[in-house]
Every structure is written in C-alpha cells, then in structure tokens.
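Dear U.,

Please find below the material for section 3 of the report. The protein was modelled together with nicotinamide-adenine-dinucleotide; I have listed the sequence and SMILES used, followed by the predicted complex structure.
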Amino acid sequence: MKKIAMLGSGFIGRFYADSLQGYRSRDKIISIYSRREESARKFAEDYQCEHWTTNMEESIAHPDIDVVCISLPNNLHEAAVMLCCKHKKAVITTKPLGRNAEEAKRMLLAVEEAGIFNGYLEDLVYTPKFIKAMESVKNGALGRILWAKSRETHPGPHSEWFWDIEQAGGGCILDLGCHCVEITRSYIGKDIKPVEVMCWADTQVKPIDAEDHAIGLVKYENGAIGQFEVSWTFRGGLDLRDEVMGSEGTIWINSFLRTGFDMFTTGKGADYVAEKAESNTGWLFPVGDELNELGYNHMFMDMFNAMEKGIDPKETFYDGYVVNAILDAAYKSAKTKQWEPVKLDIWRGQTGLSKESHLISYDADYYLIKEEMTHFGTKKLILKHKQTGKISEQIID
Ligand SMILES: NC(=O)c1ccc[n+]([C@@H]2O[C@H](COP(=O)([O-])OP(=O)(O)OC[C@H]3O[C@@H](n4cnc5c(N)ncnc54)[C@H](O)[C@@H]3O)[C@@H](O)[C@H]2O)c1
C-alpha cells in the first residue's frame, strides 16, 4: 500500500481520488493540501483522509507520505515538484508538466538529480480503447504509421485560473494540445523525433488573451505527421477523437460522444451526464464508466505497479517535457506563420532517421502502385517500371 498526499482538491484531484480509492484500491490518500481550509476539510471528509492542510510543504513532508500527486493549477506544478525533490518523495503530476519546455526541463532535471520516482499523468494514453489500438499498431496491423490525428474540443474549462494566461501558461493549445500531442506521438512512436510544427491559432469567441481554438501539424523525423485539433469554443460536450492512418490499416476512435450509448430524457430526474456535457435533456451521450473510459484506472495501475517494481511508468516527466517542447514550437509557429523547429535540448530517442521508403515491389521489374477488383469482375494492377518509370495497367482475369 502506498500512502498518497494529494495536492489540490479541485476537478482533477477529485477524479483522481475517485479512481484511486473508488475500486477498493490498496493505495490511500492520507493527506490533502488545498488552498482554502473549507475545501481541504471537505475533501478530507469525502475521502477519509487523516490529514488536511493549507500548507503545501506540510503535506509533502508528512512522514507517512510515500508519493505526492500534483493536481494543482499549471503555474504551481514546478514549485510542488521542487518540494518533492527537497523531501525525496515520489511524484506524479497532472498535465501539462510545465507551462513551457523551460519549466518542464527544470522539473525533469530536478527529479532525476533527486533520484525520485516521477510519473506524468497523461490519462488519455491509458484509455481502454487507446490501449487496444496501440496493441494493434505495435503488432503491425496498421503497417507504417503515416498520420495520427487527435482532437479534444469542449466549451471551455471550469475554473477561473485556466482563463488567465499567466497562471495557465496558454490557452487550449497547452490545456488540450498536450493530450493530443502525446496520443499522436505514441501512435507514431515515442522514440521518433518530432522535428517541426506548423500551427494556426486564434481567439475566436472568448474575451481572453490566450487562444481558444487551434489546429497544428507536427512533423516527425521518419516522415510521419501528427495533427492536433483543439478548442475551448466547441458546443455539444466533450469531443475526444483519434484517427490513425497506416500503410496497412486505419483506426478511428470516438472516446466520449457517440460511443454507442445514446439516451433520451425529457429531463425528469436528470442531473450529471458526463464531463462537460452541455445539456441534461433530449438526446444525450452518457459515458459508461467515466473513470475507466478516461484512462484514470489503467494510468494509476501503471504508476503504482512501476513504483513498486522500481521501474519507470509508461509516462514520465521526460514525456511531459517532450510534449511541452512540441507545444512551444506550436505557439511560435502560430505567431510566425512558419514551420518552427522543435527545440529539444534533451532527446533520448532515435536520431538521424530519414523518411522511410514507400516503394513496394510487385516483381523484379515493377513497383506496385495499386491493386483493385472492379465492379465488372476483373482485377486490375497499376504498376510502375523500375527502370523507365513508365506507369502501366495490367488486367488479371
Ligand atoms: N484529464 C486531465 O488530465 C486533467 C483534467 C483537468 C485538469 N487537469 C489538470 O489538473 C490541474 C488542476 O486543474 P483542475 O481542473 O483540477 O483545477 P481546479 O481549479 O478545479 O482545482 C485546482 C485546485 O488547486 C488548489 N489550489 C491551490 N492553490 C491554488 C491557486 N493559487 N489557485 C487555484 N487553485 C489552487 C485548490 O485546491 C483547487 O481546488 C491543472 O494542471 C490541469 O491542467 C488535468
């Protein structure tokens, strides 16, 4: 059993606590830090924590605590991580790791120097659908991954600090793009270097300094392309979708809306439907087991198993740092309107790759362009001659 200090009693702190303690888990939150006394006390009551405080360091330094879970606004992640280093406590932190790569790099170097366990809580690479999709990608069912797209759009976050660019560090690119980038990066291969980013961003609706809508492309060294689509202005709930295109196959995942559970109600007795649902009447799309569908259960299982075995979890601060570096390039590109290089001072994956060959041989003389069965019953081959480059058609009966 691991004894946990939860820092932050808000939206994600409670989702995490429900996942950690809601399934007879052997791990237990024993200390809660929150900014306001009444929130700390209420959380302690709701989750039977023996210790609550409004002093962050007191919670981290508590002698019984094995691991600290950071569920604080983005501008407080670094200070909390540094305190974990000081007190040599294992640390798992929510996304994004930093407000930018500079902060993320400092956190990465600090935890590694302190020699403490570090986990990056990117839940969306732990959803049951993602895990299954990733298995198929790994076993080659999709062939070479050419394009991976991920979308997270919703009507905007629930607390005031998200809307303040100083505290949040950015708008929807940072808040939602961090998920999409790690999802697409995982499909393409986490050891494949992201090299350049092109991004459009704008503030289309909300009266804020940050962007509320953005679309970006991330180019990888092996020629694959990642795409993110993020918005705080989308109406209709929380849209979470992935698309993966490979040379041998395709995956489409819808994680939150239209997942196969449609319900109609006049509104009688209706209350909470699903995260960021905008309505509780009419046709609704509830999400079966939200904690599981959003990946929290599999994520904590990986984190705590890794901690016990003394190995790295699937997602570490290093991954958080790479994501921040990609998003920094996206912000730069949105301003310059150019492809911007991803600046990675620390890179632990493959280097020197070039675009993989796309040539498929048909025989010694020809490359295969396409094979098709026509509606009139003949099979056609479209071929390219290896020497002359001439493109021709062959009909096979
Ligand atoms: N799916 C996800 O992984 C996911 C979802 C939502 C939020 N998050 C992340 O979780 C972190 C917290 O977000 P949230 O949605 O829980 O926010 P929130 O506003 O609901 O909760 C933040 C909590 O931090 C504490 N706090 C301490 N000092 C504070 C300060 N100065 N200002 C505001 N709060 C302070 C409070 O206990 C507060 O309840 C953010 O980094 C956010 O990006 C992750």
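For the text of the report, you could mention the following: The domain at 3-122 is CATH 3.40.50.720 (Rossmann fold).

Regards,
Y.
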